[in-house]
Amino acid sequence: MSTKKDILNLLKHEILNLTLKPGTILSETVLSERFQISRTPLRDVLKQLSIESYIDVYPKKGNLVSYVDLESVEQIIYLRSVLEKDIIKGLSGSLTLKGIMELKKNLEEQKNAIYQEHALEHFLMLDDTFHRTLFILAGHEFLWKLIKFSNVHYERYRRLHMLKQEKLEKILNEHHMILDCMTNHETDKVDELVQHHLREDINSLYLLENFADYIRA
Questions:
Q1: Contact, 25 vs 62, CB < 8 A?
Q2: Averaged pLDDT, groups of 10, the chain, 217 residues long
Q3: How far is CA 136 from the centre of its chain?
Q4: Paired sense of beta strands 62-65 and 55-58, if any
Q5: Which phi and psi (to 5°) does residue 58 adopt?
Q6: Are the beta carbons of 127 and 172 closer than 8 angstroms?
Q7: What is the Cα–Cα distance from 82 to 113, expressed in whole angstroms?
Q8: pLDDT for residue 2
Q9: C-alpha closest to that of 137 among 83, 98, 105
Q10: Nearest Cα residue to 206 out of 162, 155, 153
Q11: Contact call for residues 74 and 202 (beta carbons, < 8 A)
């Protein structure tokens, strides 16, 4: 029998990686049978998923995996953009050799991941590690954790935009440019670079043309 925490984390993972697609009905009966758990603790799990916006509860339809909320995505992008511009500027000229080596190692791993069989999963993890490292080096790991806690819509938006290899290559190139800005003290380039890196896709028609069923109306 799985614990409530195990079930919660597994369902979160399946929602974030789109195994459970937006709009999917989460039947209490099916989940109870799947996890061999009674309805009462299962409802606690579903309540927590609802609180964290992983699912929406509708009186007549039941529990549905939440649709990607582009307004929420916009808010997270804005927050990250403001913070990361300041962080990268602050690290420019003060980045330690250890920090540079850590970031370069991560970029080399990103390059190798792009051409692996399951490139997306590994690359997403390394992409997160790159940005988390910037927050840690700047002494703002707590802010990174706050962002990740409110990330259910942005994570799925990001995943859908990273399904093609050329997109991963473009992101890697921009990561190299971010590191170059810091090591070369080119703070004048930071605003435009971060703005493009985080916001390029927000006004793209790609999601509406390919995944309209996943988007909150």
A1: yes
A2: 89 96 96 93 96 92 94 95 97 94 98 90 96 98 93 94 92 97 95 94 87 92
A3: 17
A4: antiparallel
A5: -115, 135
A6: no
A7: 29
A8: 76
A9: 98
A10: 162
A11: yes
CB 103 within 8 A of CB 172: no
**What are 62's two structure tokens?**
């039941």
Residue 176 in tokens: 């190299």
pTM of the model: 0.91
Residue listed under structure tokens 């990273």? 162
> Who's near 171: CB < 8 A, 6+ residues apart?
123, 127, 162, 197
Beta bridge partners of 58: 62
Phi, psi dihedral angles at 57 (to 5 degrees) = -110, 125
Give the chain's radius of gyration (CA, Å): 19
**CB burial of residue 115 (10 Å; 0-12, 13-18, 19+):** exposed
